[in-house]
Amino acid sequence: MSSLNCNGDGTCIKECYCECFNEDTNKYDENCKCGHRHHNGFCYSICCFPIRCRNYKFCNEKVPKWILDSYNGMSANCAIQLGRHEITDIINNCPVCLEDTKMIILKCKHMVCNDCWYQICNKDCFYENTDEIYIPLCPLCRNKNNWTC
């Protein structure tokens, strides 16, 4: 897609499969096959660039704007991990970290800050037994907070 046809939402950014991880050294090679050097799965276009996920300080992902618009400002990986929630501009005392910060509303209607919710969702999601499926629980009522109704 040329920049003349671009509407600014990042649909002109091409997804690529980064094959530059060197398993012998456990490091990324200097250049990806596509040459973008960012190792994040997207080759830049002339007019648009990937944008930081809302959880960038944790996930280190940059994605096209249309993906952020689809998933509450997050990458698809973060959206799946964090389950259903609503972002707000409400500043309140987080019941987990006790900081005054912007809250998110979980499926059960309890509020926590985004950073704490990310940490809760990330903490136990990697099991040795791959048959288990991790579903994050609200830190207040312990209800499941996944993508189901």
TrEMBL record:
SUPFAM superfamilies: RING/U-box
Annotated InterPro entries: Znf_RING, Znf_RING/FYVE/PHD
Domain RING-type: from-to ranges: 94-142
PROSITE patterns, per the entry: ZF_RING_2
Protein name: RING-type domain-containing protein
Annotated organism of origin: viral metagenome
